[in-house]
Each structure stands twice: as structure tokens, then as C-alpha cells.
Amino acid sequence: GPTMLFGLLFLVFYEVYRFLLHGNRFPPGPRPWPLLGNIPQLLMKPAQTFAEIATYGEIASLYLGRKPSIVLNTLQVSKMALVENGAVFSGRPSLPVLDWIINGRGIVMSNGDSWRQQRKFASLTLKAFGLGKKSLEERVTEEAYYLIDELEKEGENPFDPQHMIQNAVSNIICSVVFGGRYDYEDKRFHNLLDIINENIFLTGSALGQIFNLFPFIKHFPGPHQRIQQNASELTGFISEEAREHRKTLDKDNLRDFIDAYLVQMEKQESIPNSTFFEENMVFSVADLFLAGTDTTSTTIRWGLIYMMEHPHIQEQCHKEIEYVLGFDRIPSMDDRAALPYVYATVHEVQRVGNIVPLGLIHSTTQATQLKGYYLHKGTNVLVNLTAILKDKDHWKYPDTFNPANFLDEKGQFCKNESFLAFSLGPRVCLGEQLARMELFVVFTALLQRLHFSWPPNTAPHDTEGVFGLTRSPKPFKMLCRRRGAKH
Ligand code: HEM
Prior knowledge:
GO terms for molecular function: heme binding; iron ion binding; oxidoreductase activity, acting on paired donors, with incorporation or reduction of molecular oxygen, reduced flavin or flavoprotein as one donor, and incorporation of one atom of oxygen. The model has no long low-confidence stretch (mean pLDDT about 90). About 40% of the residues are buried. The radius of gyration is 23 Å and the shape is globular. It is built from 18 helices and ten strands. Helices cover about 50% and strands about 5% of the residues. It is an alpha+beta fold. The strands form four sheets. It has a four-stranded mixed beta sheet with strand order 1-2-6-3. A two-stranded antiparallel sheet has the order 4-5. Strands 7-10 form a two-stranded antiparallel sheet. It has a single domain (about 1-480), classed as CATH 1.10.630.10. It starts with a helix and ends in a 5-residue tail after the last strand. Helix 9 runs antiparallel to helix 14, helix 12 (about 225-250) crosses helix 14 (about 280-310) and helix 14 (about 280-310) crosses helix 15 (about 310-325). Protoporphyrin IX containing FE binds next to helix 14 and helix 18.
């Protein structure tokens, strides 16, 4: 009928338009659907689509809606773009669903001077409040022991550890930004974590993609309004914290990130167009909180799964920790050298866990070229962290969980340049140092005190996971039992 004819004509026009736009000078990639691009494939069979993209050579293309993105599939080409030409490749695109709630504020999705200033300030302030210092490490170990107590309470009954782990991890970032932790029973804080989870899920889901294609739906009621409500609830929580901080602020004795930001705002009061204002504070805090919580807690959950899947690796970790620390000595970053097997295992958890499969989306800040391809200003750029973390040319055991990927023949830890879990270049994860400390200290403390196993008759775990903004494990239940003497 006429609809069919119209559809066909549309397809032809669309293909011609695509060709005229890029000629044959745009890299190859999976065939896009009209209008929707590769979004249906990405939503319906994400793992296969990621694997397929990697087969198109070092640079591939992917259509998020009508807009093409280039995908960097190797370490070499990623370095060429994001490091050697870092200024040009370090923009962020405008994504309607995120613009709707973030509007260019904060760190993760901001651009230009605002991004540079907010990022630099956050980086320096994280350092000032203990990164690389003993005090923050002690806070991390303290939190690890709260978590161990909570896990142990569940004892020998199968339970899902997700909430406890998330609460523990977000408490660490809370200590830095708000100056305190929240009790695991705190209802208001639980509610906040639920809201965050829901928004991470919704913005990454089909609903978020529909919004990106048809942003005018923001003017109409519907399930997408939930995203805005959740965001307001989170920013409301932060604003309230800031109000409390203002009342008790002592400039000679700054307690946390919010205090430091309030002082910075005052310092810059007379500077026209200063990027240090209330809303940027709220969104910077939200960014640290969001980027720091889901990533780290998801990694720890994958870690527990890999330990249960590979009991002999768990046992090897137990043995090394028992030999070096015993059951009571509190682990610290200084113990990394003496615990090479555990340190390698933590890296392997991140490599195989691969929780940000295509990194965070970048955008070119001006027209440029890469390996002979001409790229317009505002071309989307994705770094295929999955392909790089599993590149057969760079890993001894690319497709299996094996800490030997990070060990030399003598059993000593060895770095691997392709370990890009935190991405690279000027947009590299701002929390890398904090995340590495959390992962090593918490993982070591957990394995020092506890033994993890699947409940009897558990079906084999689905290691493909659930794809949202991060790749997380399907909900699971586990058993844990105490090792060594009661602490
Ligand atoms: C960005 C990974 C933990 C704060 C990123 C990016 C990745 C990443 C892949 C994107 C970089 C890019 O755009 O190329 C991880 C992983 C973590 C982790 C795997 C833990 C296992 C944290 C923590 C914090 C944090 C604990 C908080 C202190 C940020 C921020 C950005 C970012 C603020 C945005 C940087 C920017 O746009 O300039 N992270 N991250 N991350 N991460 Fe992390």
C-alpha cells in the first residue's frame, strides 16, 4: 500500500542522505535503522552488538539515532585521539534526556571553561580532603568493617548484598562531600539511593532513548517525568545539605567538599561569569556522588561473583592475605606490593567486569581528522573499552577470568597499558585514585574476614549482566561465612 511505498522511499532517501553526508569517508559499522540508527540493536542484544562493532577494524561507526558516532576499537587509535589530540576529543555532546536534567552544569556532562574549572576544583579538593592521605584510607577501612559486620549478620542465609555494598561505597564519597556517613538503616538515605538507581536505569533505558529522539515529550505527562522528579529530589537533598553547611561554616576549618565550594563561591563573587555558583555546586556534588557510587559498588558485586565462580582463585587470595596480614591486621594501600596476587585479582575483576562497556560519550570540539577520516565538529566519539580490555594482542588470557593477566613469571604484579577501565586523556575518570583505593582496601578486607559461596543448587550465573549506563550483574543471592577469629 501507500505506507509501504512511502516507507521504501524514505529508506532510499535516508541512505542517499547518509552517503552525501559522509560519502565513503565514514568508517564502517553495523547497519543502522532509519531514524533509530543502531539503538534497537544496542537495546535488544547489547553484548552481541558490542562484539560486532569490534569486528569493523580500528575505527567503526555507530548510529545513536540519526547521529553517527565513531567508535575507537584499539588502544593505539584511542591514544591518538584522546591523548595526542586530547583538547579536540574531550568535549561532551548534547543528549536531550541529560540536558533536560543537567543543563551543562557540574563536571561529567559539562564543556569548555565551566568543565575545566569545575573539574580542576573537584580534583584539587578531593586531594585536599584526604586522597592519598592516611585519613581517607582509614575512613575506607572503617567503612569496610561496617560492611563486613552487615554481611556477617546475614550469616548462612542466602541474601542479596546489593544495598549494603552500595550504602558502604556511597558513604565513602559522602564523607568527602558532606562530611559524614549514613547509617545502613537510614530510610531517607536508602530512598535517595533507590532514586539514583532508578534514574541510572531510566536514562539508559529505551525510555531515555525515546526521549533523545523526541525531546518535545518533556512538555507532556508520562513515565519520563519520573526522571525529572528523581533529579529534583536528589538536588533538593544536596541543596539542603549545603544550607546546613552554610549555618556552621568555619573558613579556617573546612570540613568537606561543600565547605570548600562555599568558600570558593565567595572568593569568586566579584568575578563576572564565574562558574562557581550554587547550581554548579549542586551538580558537581551530584556528579561525584553518581559517578562514585554505582561504578564502585557494581565492580565489588562483580568481584564477589567472580570469587564464587572461581573458588580456587578466592582460596589463593585468602592464603596470600592470611600469610601477609593474618586475620586482624588492617589492610592498607602500602600492602599492595606484598599482596601481588590479590592486587592482580582486583585488576582482573575490573578488566572482566568491564562495567562501562563503551566508556562515556565524547564529542569533537572542532572539525578534525583521524586516520584519514574527516570528522565534523560535534562528532560523537566512543571508546570501545570492551574491545581494548579484551584485545587478543594485549592480553594473555583475554576471554577468561585469570589474575595471571596482571602477573609476571615470578608472580609479581605487572601493569598492562591496555587496562583502560578508567578511560584516558583529559576526561579520564576523575575518581580513579579514590576508586582504586576503595577497591583494593575493601576487597582485601572482605576476603580477609569472609568466605563467599553460592547457595546450594544455584543455577550458573549469567555473566552477560544487565546493560544500562553501566554493565551490572543480574541480582543474585550469596552465602558468606566468617574466617579466622572474631574481630
Ligand atoms: C568519568 C570509570 C569511579 C568520578 C569516568 C569515565 C569512566 C570512569 C570510564 C569516563 C571517562 C571518559 O569520558 O573518557 C570509573 C570506574 C570507577 C569509577 C570503572 C570505579 C570502579 C569513580 C569515582 C568517582 C568518579 C569513585 C568520584 C570521585 C568520575 C567523574 C567523571 C568520571 C567526575 C567525569 C570526568 C569528566 O567528564 O571530566 N569514570 N569511575 N569515578 N568519573 Fe569515574
